[in-house]
Structures are given as structure tokens and as C-alpha cells.
Amino acid sequence: xxxxxxxxxxxxxxxxxxxxxxxxxxxxxITFERDVRPLVETYCFPCHGPEKQKGDLNLxxxxxxxxxxxxxxxWRTARHQLISNEMPPAKSxxxxxxxxxxxxxxxxxxxxxxxxxxxxxxxxxxxxxxxxNTIRDLLAMPxxxxxxxxxxxxxxxxxxxxxxxxxLPPLLFEKYLDAASDLLDxxxxxxxxxxxxxxxxxxxxxxxxxxxxxxxxxxVGDVGIAFTAxxxxxxxxxxxAAADQxxxxxxxxxxxxxxxxxxxxxxxxxxxxxxxxxASLMLKKGPxxxxxxxxxxxxxxxxxxxxxxxxxxxxxxxxxxGKTRALVIDWIEVQGPPGPPPPESxxxxxxxxxxxxxxxxxxxxxxxxxxxxxxxxxxxxxEQVERLAKVFDAADAKGQPYEEGVKLxxxxxxxxxxxxxxxxxxxxxxxxxxxxxSDFDLAARLSYFLWSSMPDxxxxxxxxxxxxxxxxxxxxxxxxxxxxxxxxxxxxxFAEQWLTLRNLDTIEKDKVxxxxxxxxxxxxxxxxxxxxxxxxxxxxxxxxxxxxxxxxYVNARLAKHYGIEGxxxxxxxxVQLPDHNRGGVLGMAGILAIAANPGRSNVPKRGKWVLEQxxxxxxxxxxxxxxxxxxxxxxxxxxxxxxxxxxxxxxxSCHKQMDPIGFGLExxxxxxxxxxxxxGRAIDASGVLPGGARFSGPAELxxxxxxxxxxxxxxxxxxxxxxYALGRGLEPYDEPAVDGIxxxxxxxxxxxxxxxxxxxxxxxxxxxxxxxxxxxxx
Amino acid sequence: xxxxxGHEQGVRGAQPPAQQRxxxxxxxxxxxxxADGPRFLDRRWRLSRRTLIRGVGAAIALPWFEAMAADPxxxxxxxVRMGFFFIPSGVNVPDWMPKPGAGLPFILEPLxxxxxxxxxxxxxRQDKSRANGDGAGDHARETGTFLTGVQCRKTSGTDxxxxxxxxxxxxxxxxxxxxxxSLELGIERGGASGDCDSGYSCAYTSxxxxxxxxxxxxxxxxxxxxxxxxxxxTAPGSAGIDGxxxxxxDAVTEDAGKLKAGLGGNDARKLEEYLDSVRALxxxxxxxxxxxxxxxxxxxxxxxxxxxxxxxxxxxxxxxELIAIAYQTDSTRxxxxxxGNGGSNRAYQNLGVMGGHHELSHHGKDPAKLAxxxxxxxxxxxxxxGLLEKLKAVKEGSGTLLxxxxxxxxSGIGDGDRHNHDDLPYLLAGKxxxxxxxxxxxxxxxxxxACDLYLSxxxxxxxxVPAFGDSKMPLDLL
Lengths: 778, 478
Hints:
The complex is a heterodimer. By secondary structure, chain A is an alpha+beta fold. Among the domains of chain A are: 2-108, no CATH class; 194-300 and 319-335, Jelly Rolls. Chain A is 41% helix and 13% strand. In chain A, the strands form 7 sheets. In chain A, strands 2, 3, 4, 6, 9 and 11 form a 6-stranded antiparallel sheet that branches. In chain A, a hairpin with a 2-residue loop joins strand 16 (677-678) and strand 17 (681-682). In chain B, a hairpin with a 2-residue loop joins strand 7 (395-396) and strand 8. In chain B, helix 2 packs across helix 3, helix 9 (239-261) runs antiparallel to helix 10 and helix 12 (312-328) packs parallel to helix 14. Chain B is globular and about 65 Å long. Chain B has one domain: 3-Layer(aba) Sandwich (Alkaline Phosphatase, subunit A). Chain B has a 7-stranded mixed sheet with strand order 3-6-1-9-10-2-11, sandwiched between helices. Chain B has a two-stranded antiparallel sheet with strand order 4-5. In chain B, strands 7-8 form a two-stranded antiparallel ribbon. Chain B is α/β, with parallel strands linked by helices. Residues 1-75 and 234-240 of chain B have low confidence and may be disordered. The interface between A and B is large, with 89 and 87 residues.
């Protein structure tokens, strides 16, 4: 659309040039150095040159076309201001119409003319949202919230997924490691631990002598086994034992953990009928030593037991003379506490288990390879798997159970740069020093763009099959992915950042003036904007409805806020609006509240918000030391005070753009409630845009914006979405891609699906500058 | 590597600074060879078992003090700690600047009980916070330059760059002696959307601590997470797992090294940043510091930390409790704290103030706004004074913990309306183990770089660097 308009203007310009007999005739190329810069110097430098830099703008820094191209946004804004006669300001020296038109034409032709260049995205760390979503999909743990305590991701170019600014400070790495460990502990459960050892097979320093299938102790000593408790908790210890009794107390079996006696059991069973003695012991997770000890050996003297000593009840009858106490151990068994049933995550990850035909290392490698392939979003090499298997080996060597060893290796996967970063493969350059993305990398770009998460199995399967170079296949995937509930990520991450909705969580309102601003209202405000955007995508509506629509979404709380009757419940519902004041983002309470002060509406702030977020133009902040608006309300209405403020030439240029838009929204108070008066004075919501378009009130403002600034809005939206999709700021060489997206939108009724489809189809989304390609990063 | 060499060396512990060696030697002659310096310190702390401390406010024996008492031969001194406290958007200048002969000005009044431990500094400047040709964005610069003394590159996207901050220079040199080389704290998370100030990345407004010119040290804003971070690794039975963690780290280090070799330019830089963070953690896992965690925890006061803090005042107070505990248990000797992010527009309704902080700071000499600003300034100072009193109540050696800290409190902007970066509000609390003569106002020459102050603080930490940021020469604080 932008180009269409430009062409129309160019034609008109050509006519004008002929009529006015300008020095440059149609067809002859305008050059910056010869034709444009002298005009800029004459008419613009007085305010935007070496001496003065109003609005922070110094046009004298541009000496070549290429430099101008790098800041094409500034020049596009200048073009708009030239067309609408905003610039040069009326009181300044005015160019002739022909001169004006010449610069306008030149800017329209200020198009990237270099070689096709897709740019090169730096390796890109997963941000908090992407990490969370990826973990949920990878581990099949839909409720995991691993990133809640992660530090905020830095924001660049308006988004928190920009490769260059996503840093990895030590604090974050610590959190990645802790998260990996905690998550895998939840995702993978150890099987119930059980270890049974025949006493005669215990090698080494076990006490006693082996007699047949048993071990017999007649002197003080331990029979010990070592194992690793996988969890804290109650472990069952069973000992099959018997005894030869002697003296006046029974044979005592003592259980020791790590050398400390914890339980004593009298052994009454005789050798002919051994019994199983059981104890429950609380054990700590980790390597443990369990010993079965015999502590009371005794050999009777060779004479009958002395009479008179009272026999304790239950004590064995006096042993025959010369007998020796003996503890006979058959086997020892330790059983851990029963584990919970394996969750879905366990079944998904633990695809192999050691058994008679598969040794534990081979099983572990199968698990590791499958997991790493999904986590790294591309095939893994044998070398990588082997390196990870060594981590399993280290755990195995320390006697850790199979699951613990696997967990540890998977921990290494979850803190690997191949997981935490999206690292795209270098491939041989095609003709212009660039190459198509590999199917795996394209799949990842798609899924992180639309879902803020890793590719799912259908997408990954297409990548494996090499099908993603087929545009029709990609289109079908985009359509499928947009239908998925995961596509809500575009709203949560793209729209919420673009429309600055995340600020809604932190803005504060004066509690005295706005006691209404409770968490329920705050939430409903955010939900309205989010749902509006989500449904726009889902129903494939025109993106122009973001500016103007006759419907919105409210629940009872927000409906009351808006004065809409008949809505009940906390659920958001679509409502048809009686007029066009409310519909679209400019009538949404959340956005109106964000672009306001804690205590009052803020006309310039709202104007600035519209210029910046919707039209992609950034008015500079006020210079330091500006006089504040007089607070005293006797100094006139807000409008009168602002107009006085605007009389200051230092403020005028920016406020002339911001204020009218802000005034058009004055019917909304600092919380976005409709009002017709403030402090007893009627609200005057009229204004004149710099181009001369007049309006009164929000509905007319929106109409005027669409009539005069639609191209800027659409272009800005395309630029923002492409920035978000690529994870990098746009460069002059991206301009053809943005042109292509806006053209396609105009030709297809501005449908949301076209916007998204065109971003995916765009050259920079599908390609990458080869490492040794022209202009590669140093 | 010129600028970072000191940092790297310190991290690897090749040669601990003189002060540490001296402390080590005093405890055990000859054993404190270079590599053993930090390790030795930790063993020394182990003498300090089971000092259960009820509250930071109570008078209590400190671990090191017990160690000293147990060994009267020890002539060692408690370590010097350093802290930085950032307030956004400057102050109401007339109510901050002390006037000769008059008592403490309004904003500084809360310092009265600890005034003899406070040095008020006037005349300091942050030259690199000025535009210097970069146009608007004073709030990004007041923050990004505050501890670096380096002009931030104006960018909202790629290539953020400032300098290594003073706390990180110190951490590079002496950080290895403690479980955490440094601790970065704040109240407000990073910016949620958009560039944060006139084309400056939010990285500048939400961080004062920078590990490298391109890597901000993300700050922790959740008290509970701070506590966990200080005392993690104390779970019984985790020792065996820690040994295995090494093998996990080894595997990723090896792989990342290979990966990096195949990348160039910015990609390689990202991988290097990753490896740097892995190495930092490896040191913690390998170091003896980890082993001392349970003892540090045992000596830490009981602190009830709610899962969520709702109230700003409560939030700050908890963070200050944690800073006190960090110093007290020698979990770290270096802290930074941000009362708010650069240009914060927090509404201080608890003070009966209408409007946001940043908005009010553009007071245009409006008396009502000026009154609000000074209320906010004083409120921050009350909280800070509370921390100082807490530190003063903790006995350490022959004095108090307050005697052994150097807490620098200040803003990178003077007057929020003028956006000036000279005559900044700065003060230094604590006596730096007798190396600072406080209880007075020190008027340094006009336009003295704030980095001169930082340089003199670094020296007191035993960090000998010839210069820092735009420093000219260390300040004489005695």
C-alpha cells in the first residue's frame, strides 16, 4: 500500500514538476549530493543543523545518500511533514512547491538499492518465556514455571527476544543449572530401589565365615553392603537370619547406617527355621553403608548355668554347657520407599531401560540421544552423545542408580549452549553471499516466532524429511500452527510488548483519586487488549481494526467501567459497541491508563504513545530544563496551559504532533473511563493534525488517523513484527522485505494471516548471510 | 585485555591482593601462599561454628571475632566490605547539601544517630553521564555510568556497551574469598517493554553493575532468592552430587569450547559470555566456599522472608537485612543496591505523595513537587540509615560492623529538573576499617570525578589499579 501511494504521489509530483517548471524534470535522476542536500541546508539546517539540533535532529550529519538510507525512518518522517506542510514551520523560510516536491520525490525513492542481504542473527539465547515454553514442551510438563526467579531479559528494539541484548550473566547460569536439576528431579522418577545380597557372596572385609549358603558370626563383627539411596525417606531393611543361642540373653542383631547403630533386633529363630527380620529406617539420599552387626558374642563356660538368676520372660532356656552364640545371616535386602507412578514426562524421556539384552550405558545413550535431538532442535552427533554419556559414566561410577545417571547427563543437555541458545548452521553461500536456512533452523524460527517454543513433532518430522524448502508446506504449517492454542504466544509476547501492555502490571494510580483500580480491573484491562489481538489473528480480521473497530471484549467489571450494561461474570465476552469511540486499541482502558499519569490523563504522553507504538515515529524527549506546565488551574484549562507551553518554540515542533492526538483522547480519564467534563469544565476533544485534518473526539480521531496515516501504521506493524520474528533490529537492507509485506497486506484486505504469512515468506526470515559472505560481521 | 586483566587475574586467584595475604599470614605463618590465600580464609571461618544469632539488630559475636578470640595471636583485621546504593533522578538539592554551621539538612537528618560514621561528599561529577554529543537520555546515563564512569553507547538494540563497574573490578580481585564474589540487589525488575530512555537500552536503566562492558550483572529483586543464593549448597547429602556437578560442567564446557571455535564475531562473543558464566560457577562448585555454606547459615540470624513482598518499604528493609547478613556471615564483601531503576516513576503513596517519582523530579521549581521530592529523598535516607544502625549494632573486632564497611550512597543526577551531572549528591558511610575519617563534609574540588572516590574505595579493598573509569587520582578520605 505504501508503494502504491508513493507511486500515485510520484505521478502527481511529476505533473507538478512539469507545471511549475522545476529544475529537475521527470525522468532525470535526483541525486542527494547535487539536488537535495543544498535544499536541506537552506531550509532545514537553521533548526536541524550544526548550530541547533531541535528535536535532537541534526540533518547536517547526512552527506551521502547511503547515510540517509541508514536512517530512512527520519527521512520518511520528514517526507510526511513536507507533504503535510508541517515543515519547515510556517514562520520559517519556505521552499517553493517545486523544491518541496523534489525532496519529497527523492525520499520516496530512497530505497535500499544494494545487494540482497538477509542479515545475520547472532546466536540467540532463549528468553524467559521461550525457556519456559520450551521446557514445558520438551519435558511434557505443562505446568512448569522454571523461569519465575530468572532475572528479566533485557529489551532491545522494543522486544525481549533480541539476540544481541540477551546476555547471560553468572546469576542466570546458576539459575539454569538449578532449574535443570529441579526439573529433571520432577520429570524423571527413580524406580523403587531394591537391593538383595546373599551373605555368602559379600566379598572383602565381611566378618564371620561362610558355611554353605550362609555366613556365620561368632565374634563381634559387621557384614556390610554399600548402596546409594536415591531419595530421602523410609527404607525397609530385611535380614534373613537365625541364631545359636547361649547365655542368658538372646542373640542380638544390630543394624548400622554409616557406622552408627540405629536398630537392635533379637534373633530368636534357630538354624532349622531361619526368620526374616525387618526394620524401617529413615535414610538420607546419597551413598550409604548398611551393616548387619553382631555385638554380643558369648561362649558359655563348660558347666551348667548358675541358678538363682531370675529368668527374664521370653528369654531362651538356659543353653547347654559350652555352647557359643552365633549369628547366622542368609541374605540382606534394602528396599527404598515406593516411588510415585512415573509421570508423562518420565515415559516421554526414558525411552530405554537396561535389561538382559541392553546394558545400562547403551540404554542411557539411547535416552540421551533422543532427548538431546529434541532439546538441540537438530540432529546430534555421536561425539556429542558420547560426551554426554561420560556424565552418565561419572554418576554410574559413584554407584548412582540408572535414572540418576541419566538425569545428570540430561542436566548437561539443559545447560548446554546448544539448548540455551538458538545456533543456526553455516552453510555454503549461494550467489549473493547468503544461504537458505537449513530445514531444522527454519523449523526453529517458525516455532519460536509463532509459539515462542520449540518445534513440535509434526514440524520436526517435516524438517527431518527436508520438506520445508517447499513454500506450500511452510504455508500449511503456518496455518496449522496459528490454529494451535500455543499461538497465543504471539499475543502474549509480540502484541503485549508492541502495545506496551506489560507495563500494565507495574503502573500505579493514585489510590485516593482512583480507588476503583483494583487487581480485577487491572486484569480485565489487560485481558481486553490481549483478547482483541488474539481474536484478530484467530478470525483473520483486518489489522486496521486495531485502530478502529465497533466491538471489543469486556467482562462485568470492565463493562461497568465502560458504562456498558447487561454484562455479567468474570469471563470476557465480545460486545458490539454503539459508536466508534471505544473500539480499537485507542479506546482500551489498559492502554489509556498506561499512557497517562498516576493522577491524571496526559495529553502529550498519549500522543507520543500513538506516534511511537502505532505509527513508528519517536518524538524526542523534552529538553532538560523545560518549564513545567503551571499546576495552578487558574492558569486556564489544561488545553490553554498546554497551548501556552507550545508557544515555546523549543517545545512546539514535537508538541504540535503529539498534543492534538492526545487531545482527541481527552474524553478518557487516567483510567480510561469515558467523561465529558473535568473539574466542571466540558472536555474539548477537538484537534487539528499537522497536515490540517480536523477532528473532535476519539471516533473522529481514529477516522482521521486511518485516512492520513494508514500507511505509516501498516508499515510500522510490519516492521515491528519482522523485528520480533528475526530477533534483531531492522537494517536498510530489510526495507525490500518490509515493502513486500505491506504490499501484500494492501492487496489482501490487511488480513492478519497475510501479515504473518508474509513475514515467514520474507527473504530475511528464510535466509541468512553466510559467514564469509559480503559484509559479514567482523 | 588491558582493562580486564586485573579482573581476570583476580578471578583465577593467581595472586591474591596484599591485604588478603596479610590477613592469612597473621593466622598461620607460612601457609598462606598465593594460591592458598582465599582458601585459607575460609578455613579460618570454620572456627566460627554454631554462633546462633537472633537478629542483626542484637549485639552479637561475629564469626571472625570468635576466631580472633580463640587465637589471641591473630592480629588480623576483619575484612573491609564495599556497598553501592543508587537512588534515581537526583535529589532536592537545597535539602541535601549541608550548609556550614547548620545541622544536618532535611534529607540527611535520619543519619543523625550514625552521623559520626558518615562522610558527606560534595562536588563530585559524572562527566560521562552528560550527553557529550549523544543527546537525550540522562536517566539511562545516570544509571549506566554510575559505577562505570564510562559513556554508554547510545543504542536501544544491538551493541550495548559501557564499562566494567567498580564493584566488579573489586569482585574480580577479592571476590574469590567469599561464597559469592558480589551480590547485586534491587527493587524493580528490568524494563518491561520498549527502549527505556530516549533510545537507550533498558539494560542501562536497570543495572548499575557490569561484569564486562557488554554484560550487565542482572540483579536479584526477590528477597527469598537472595537468601537461597547465599546459602544454597547446604542441603545435607548434597556433597556427593556436587562432585558430579563438576562432570556436568566439564561436559558443557568442552562442548561450548568446540562450538565457539566454529563461530565468529558476535556469535563467538556470546559463547564467550556463556563460558565465562560457567567458569564462575565452576569456581563456586570447586571452591571451599561452598563447604562453608552450612556454617555461614548456622551463624546467620533468623530471618522470616515472605514469599511475596507487596510493600516497597518492607521490600527494601528485607533487602537491607540480607545485605547485613551477607556482610555478617562473610557471604560476600561487595554489594550493589538500586532503590529504583533509572528514571523510575514509582508512586510513593505511602508518603502521601501524588504523582510518580520521575515525573515529580521534573519539578520546574514548583514548591509542591519539590516538597514531594524531598519527602521521597528523605524516605530513602531513612531506610538507608536503618541499615547503618543495624550494622552498628553488630559487634566486630573491637568495634562494629559499620566500622568496617564503605557504603557509597548517591545518584548520577544532581537536580532532577536540571539533569545536571555535577555537584552530585554522594555520601560514604562506614569507616573502611579506620581508613576513612567520617563525621564531616568533604568538599572535593568542583568537577572531581566520582571515579576518584571509587578508586580510593578500591584501594581500601586491597585492589591496586592505577585508574578507574575517568578517575584522575584517589581522594584523600582521611
